[in-house]
Amino acid sequence: MNYTELNLNEKIQQGLSEAGYVTCTPVQEQVLKASLDGSDLYVQSQTGTGKTAAFLVTIMQEILTERANGTDGKKNALILVPTRELAVQVEEEAKKLGKHTALRFASFYGGVGYEKQVSDLKKGVDIIIGTPGRIIDLTEGKQMDLSGVGYLAIDEADRMFDMGFYPDLRKLIHFLPKNEGDKKGRQTMLFSATLNSYVKNLAWEYTREAKEITIEAQNITVDEIDQELIHVSSEDKMRLLLGIFRKENPESVIIFCDTKKMCEIISKRLEINGIKNEYIIGDLPQSKRLKIMDSFKAGKVTCLVATDVAARGIDVNDLAMVVNYDLPTEAENYVHRIGRTARAGKSGKAYTFCSERDVYSLAPIERYIEKQIPSRVAVEEDFSEDKSRDVYIRLDSEEKHGGRWGERDSRRGEKSGGRRRDRSGRNGRGERHSRREQDEKDFKSFKGDKSKATVRRASDEEIARLSGMSSDERLKYFKEKYAKSSSVAPAGGAMQKGRNTRGKGRSGKSRETNGFSKKTGSAPKKLGLIARLKSLIGRGK
């Protein structure tokens, strides 16, 4: 269906035409057909399907219709998103589609000052776009009034839960108009890529008699993206990445890492090897993050290193390649990552590096996408020389604080297996780090460990054997292969030891028995204070 076939306001049609919107995507067609009568919606749709335009056009159309009819010209809209980057992206899209409507749009998120945002609110905002944390802050501070919200859209609801926003979303309910009896306080549209109990519960709390729309993923991870999983040891990942750059010379690429520190390390190692790039993490100032993203979208920066959370909101239609330097700990993130290369029906290339530490995340991913990712083992021809191999990478955070805690953290990671959870909580205001984000994995992965135990090369026999294995068989194979070189004492051991010492003294021995068994009776009973005084008095006599 074309947009011209829909009965939309002519000013919206003009904005759609200038923005290049001609044919509706499946989610746009179904949302517009179902929502323009004011019905609540629950929409399950993958990222990159055009759902942003779907709820923006719906909201703008209904606001303009009500104002034209004079029924209720005071209603405004609230759009909630999980990250500041996505808030900026939605605001830009809204201004593009609604440039002829005279509607006012503004985004509200943490990490920046309040002055401009408060100033925008004083001028009046028809469509408010923001992250839950900053919206709550402004509302509780009486700078923002949500009592007039007639339209609510919650985008990427599943990511909200992953980032810890569920309590904030439930808190926001109390600030919004309520649906009481036959009186409908607001229209609510909830969008999510995945369906889980939290999303269902949120839909039940926010919506009333919602229409459910499910857009099939259309095998985006199978048919449109050329996927290749390469088994490689941790220490050889950088050499493999450089080899891919040498062979492919991609026009644009995003490299995904699991942690903020690893993003910075990979970025600086690429620079040493002559590859210009930028990295984007949650700790960067908002102005710098926006500048980097704008440069990447404009093609001024062709290589970007990012975490899953920081990359939310990067919408590039012509992304040539995605590299999963680390396998994501959540299977859904694999689809989010590689799906960035297949926007607007285009094909893409996705490389995934699977080391002895990543292999445990492989089986859940393949079960989730219901497909075995084509795989092979890296051979010597795949590698290129790494000039950063023996170079110590100094982090920006070390320079800022004048210390070398990054190195200490790395060494600690080497002893403990390299997995520590990030407990930093909120990143500024209005955004949370993923609770699964961890410290960098192992110092060996970026400094290089030349021990014979970790340097492994694949034989032709091994390559042939792995190519015919299922994911579970490969998991078992790598467990056995790397058992000796990557064996680490289980983290639960220390915890268990701590549990066993409950009710005991610092020595770990029972207070009641003083370290001896009651049955043996081999330890004399300790005297109390009064008994000791009596004993001393008796000796004095």
Mean model confidence by pLDDT: 76
Number of helices: 21
Q: Estimate the helix proportion, in percent.
A: 25-40%
- Overall geometry: globular
Radius of gyration: 28 Å
Strand content: 5-15%
Question: What strand order characterises the main sheet?
Answer: 3-4-2-5-6-1-7
What structural category arises from helix and sheet content?
alpha/beta
> Total number of β-strand segments?
14
Unreliable segments (pLDDT under 50, ≥5 consecutive)?
Answer: 403-458, 484-523
The major β-sheet equals:
7 strands, parallel
Distance between the termini: 109 Å
Which labels suit this protein?
14 strands; 541 residues; seven-stranded parallel sheet; alpha/beta; single chain
Question: How would you sum up this structure, described in words?
Answer:
With 541 residues, this protein is α/β, with parallel strands linked by helices. The protein has 21 helices and 14 strands. It has a 7-stranded parallel beta sheet with strand order 3-4-2-5-6-1-7, with helices on both faces. Strands 10-11-9-12-13-8-14 form a 7-stranded parallel beta sheet, sandwiched between helices. The chain starts with 9 loop residues before the first helix and ends with a helix. About 18% of the residues have low confidence.
